[in-house]
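Support request, priority: normal
Reporter: lab tech (M.K.)
Component: structure prediction queue

Hi team, I submitted a job for Methylenetetrahydrofolate reductase from Flavisolibacter ginsenosidimutans yesterday, and the status page still shows it as pending. I've pasted the exact input below so you can check whether something in the sequence is tripping the parser. The sequence length should be 317 residues. Please let me know if I need to resubmit or if it's stuck on your end.
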Amino acid sequence: MKVIDYINEANGKTLVSFEILPPLKGKGINALWEHLDPLMEFKPSFINVTYHRSESMFKKKPDGTFDKVEVRKRPGTVGICAALMNRYKVDAVAHLICGGFSKQETEDALIDLHFLGVNNVLVLRGDAPKNESSFEPEPGGHRYAIELMQQVNNMNNGIYLEEDLKNATKTNFCIGVAGYPEKHFEAPNMQTDLAFLKAKVDAGAEYIVTQMFFDNQKYFAFVKSCRDAGINVPVIPGLKPIYTKKQLSIIPRTFHVDIPEELSSDLLKCKTDAEVEVVGQEWLLKQSKELKAAGVPVLHYYTLGKPNVVANVVREL
Ligand code: FAD
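Reply from support: The job had stalled in the queue. We restarted it manually and it finished. Here are the results:
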């Protein structure tokens, strides 16, 4: 079933969904099941699986010099989507990114997803690799998420890259896109960012999932700005638990979001990460309760690393 159908059929009830990462290359899938099994009691409507590009790495050669190699550390998104649908009878949402992939590779991934019965995709641009300062599209790839969306739309209309394919099967993907309550870090201002977000919705995105935020007022203001800009699709809040002190600097640096002073001062008083986890869990619960009371369509949890914290929060809702 499509994400948008879950939302429409819920009739205003707030749903729950989770987001996971594929394991590092070479690791088995069992740790992922151990992570997800305890979360299934909450009957998530769907589970998102992130998509990852290759990164450059330097490998030491026997003569002591280094070779630069491209390594995709977290492959497996398509397979994990199919495996979790099979194991849990829950719908999977495959993330797709522009960065690091040609249109042909993306088409192949979409064909696999379609054959496996995965009908939901979250279409994203992706970021620059860690050692590069700005995002550059792959040769023969897309520069913006909206271009990748257009490729999915085309396949939904039976139009593949090889234009002379006769009677090609139409795929049936429901498309979600990302939105940023605190603005995408590259956008010059919120209005410009919202104009590009509206273009994605006008091009067929059926819902938006937000970047994580720790201050609900930012989400509420963002939804209002979306509505004022004529963006009327559901806006799903993305929520992440804080459970280590290190995250206090890593999260703002990596995701370009603020941690409210009230939360950061409580976290700074903690002596151990176990104490941080308690404070982080309380904050997440407070955020979740307020968002649920406001009638958000879905509470979408980035469960990475701490399924127990997410489980404790969802259980209390
Ligand atoms: P876009 O919509 O393409 O926007 C990128 C920037 O370009 C913005 O500043 C926007 O304002 C601007 N822009 C957009 N369209 C145009 C245009 N036509 N002309 C000029 N400027 C334009 N990354 C991964 O690698 N894998 C994942 O699985 C993943 N999952 C994510 C899930 C969520 C919910 C979120 C919020 C982010 C996720 N990301 C993931 C990170 C995401 O790839 C980055 O935030 C990336 O920098 C932007 O992606 P986007 O789809 O918002 O890009």
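The chain has a mean pLDDT of 96. The longest strand covers residues 91-97. Let us know if anything else looks off. Ticket resolved.
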